[in-house]
Every structure is written in C-alpha cells, then in structure tokens.
Amino acid sequence: MRGPAATNLHRAKKYIYMETINQTLVSYFIIKGISDVPEFQVPVFLLVLLIYLTVLGGNMAILHLVCQDNQLHTPMYFFLGNLSLIDISYTSITLPKVLFMFISGDNTISFFVCFTQFYVFSSSTSYELLLLTAMGYDRYVAICKPLHYHTIMNRRACVLLTSVCWCLGFLEPMPFVILLAGISCYTSHIINHFFCDLVPLLQISCTDTSLLETLVFTEGMFLTLLTPFILTCISYAFIMVTILKIRSNTGRRKAFYTCASHLTVVVLLYATLICQYMRPATTNSLDSNKLFSLFNAIALPLLNPLIYSLKNKDVKSALKRRLRSI
Predict the structure, then answer these.
(1) Which of 66, 221, 248, 297 is 20 to 30 A from 123, comparing alpha carbons?
(2) What is the mean pLDDT, run by run of 10 residues, along the chain of 326 residues?
(3) How far apart (Å, rounded) are the C-alpha atoms in residues 300 and 193?
(4) How far apart are CA 168 and CA 172, in angstroms?
(5) Rounded to whole angstroms, how far apart are CA atoms 178 and 132?
(6) Bridging pattern class, strands 28-31 and 190-191
(7) Which of the 8 DSSP states describes residue 186?
C-alpha cells in the first residue's frame, strides 16, 4: 500500500500506540499521602498518630458512657452513641493506612481495597448526614413538643430512625461506586490524596465519566446533601419559632443550649462538604480538596466528642461518676 492511504494508516497506528501508552490498566494505585516532603514525615506521622488515638479514645469514651450510664439512656444520647460509632469508622478506614505508609514506605493500595475504602468513607458520610437529620428531629420534638417527647421518641422510634439511616447511608453511594469501579483505564496510577476519594480518581480516569459525574452530582447533591439539609433546616425553623415565643431570657437560653452542640456539628460538617465537593474538580483544586478531606476525616471526629462533652452537663456528670467508680 502506497500513497496517502498508507500515510493515513501509519498515522492511525501511531495514534493508537500513543493512546495505549497514555492509558494505564491498573491493578493497584499509589497514594501520595498527606505530605511527600522528607523533613515533614516524622512530625506528620506523630501528629496523625496522636489525632487517631485521641479520636478513638474520645469516641470510645462517649460510647462507653452512653452504654453504661443509666442517666444517659435517652434518645439524644442513643443518637450520640451512633455518631461516635460512625466517627470511629471514618478515621479507621483512612488513618491506619496513612500510618502504615509512613512506617513501611509502601504507598501502594490494591484496586479492591481502594474502592472498598472509598465506599465505606462515602457511606459513613451519608449516614452521618442522615443521623444528624434524625438528631435535629429529636431536638425539634424535645423543644416544640416537650409534653409528648417520651411518647414520640420512644425506644422503637429511635431504633427505627437509626436503622433507616444505616440502610440509606450504605445503599446511597453504591451506584456511583460501582460505576467508578467499572472505569477501564487511567492516565496514571498515582492518586494525589491520602486515601481513595472521588475527585482524585476522576482526575486520573481516561474514559468518559460524564454519566458518573451527572449521577454523583444529582444523587449526591439532592439525595445525600440537600434533602438532609432541608429537613434539618425545617426542624430548626420550628425550633427557632418556639424559642422566640418563650418570654423569659433564661428559658430561651436553656432551650437554645439543648441544641447548641448539635447545631455546631451540623454547621461544621455541611460547610466542609460544600467546600470539598461543590467546587470545580480541576487539577489545581486537588491540594485544597485534600485539606478539606483532612478536616472531614480527622478534625470532625476529633471535635465531636469535645463539642458534646464540653457543652453537655449530663456527659460531664456521667464521666465524673465513672471516674469516681474506678
């Protein structure tokens, strides 16, 4: 074959060859981690280890108090115990791998483990948003319908609410996790993150991810983020109306105090998620996305037990009783 046809065939073969080089079929990924600066390795390792142990200790202490202290056997602390449980899973799915990478120097993660990590982290996020919505409803009943509180928020209702949160939380991210795991090739096997997350995985994909991005945006925005946010706002709208109707300043402060801890956690979590996922997924935003993920995976599970213990007299009293009994 000679002439223009031969030239075009040669160009097509060269194009296919170059495309094959630029596309990588991977069975594992390499996680860049929190920091790749050699001078920072030891300080970052010690800081991550300290934070992880503090998160485990704080949330396990909350769980222990809620389970063992009879005065904390109420709906609010039942939900708080579930929140501590999911905070432990948040950190345990990411930080042990980070610590292992620091110690061993092995930054590889298998394809299966990577997507398992992504699924558990996504599910934990969905569940926490739903659980905070249930906690907002609990505060609405406590403040707006105090005489019917124990009738409405009985044990059966609390178990049903948390069961629905668990089921929806772990079912919601499954479709886009399956689609993401079905991506056939990647331009690189290096993930610019400290765990397998959505944005860095999409960045290195060499296949068309428009369907996946549409699904993530619609399902994530409306089902995972917007629906719990609207329901939480509705609860607090009724709460604020009820508080404003209270004539005494002492009564208003007491009513607001009962939901201050929950409101603080809600604001921190939603602000972090909006900054993390509701931005254009450009390469320049990967480092800032990593910072928001760090706050979401480390700071929030660390702050939750502090917020609920420092602002809650019942928890502090229960802790003192347990310490005296030792």
Answers:
(1) 66
(2) 44 38 64 77 87 90 87 89 89 89 88 89 90 93 91 93 92 85 80 84 81 76 83 92 85 81 85 69 56 76 79 76 75
(3) 18
(4) 6
(5) 26
(6) parallel
(7) B
Task: Output b/e per residue, 262-300; b: 16+ Cβ within 10 A.
Answer: bbebbebbbebbeebbeeebeeeebeebbebbbbbbbeb
Q: Which residue has the tokens 């991550």?
A: 48
Give residue for tokens 């983020």: 225
Paired tokens of 296: 């979401």
Where do we find the tokens 């925005």? Answer: 221
CA dist 207 and 315 (Å) reads: 51
**Residues β-bridged to residue 49:** none
In the chain the first and final C-alpha atoms are separated, in Å, by: 90
> Starting from the edge strand earliest in sequence, which strands make up the sheet with 108-110, in order?
108-110, 28-31, 190-191
Task: Give backbone dihedrals phi and psi of 8, rounded to 5 degrees, phi first.
Answer: -65, -40
CB distance 143 to 242 below 8 Å: yes
* Lookup: tokens for 16: 């296919």
Amino acid (1-letter code) at residue 247: R
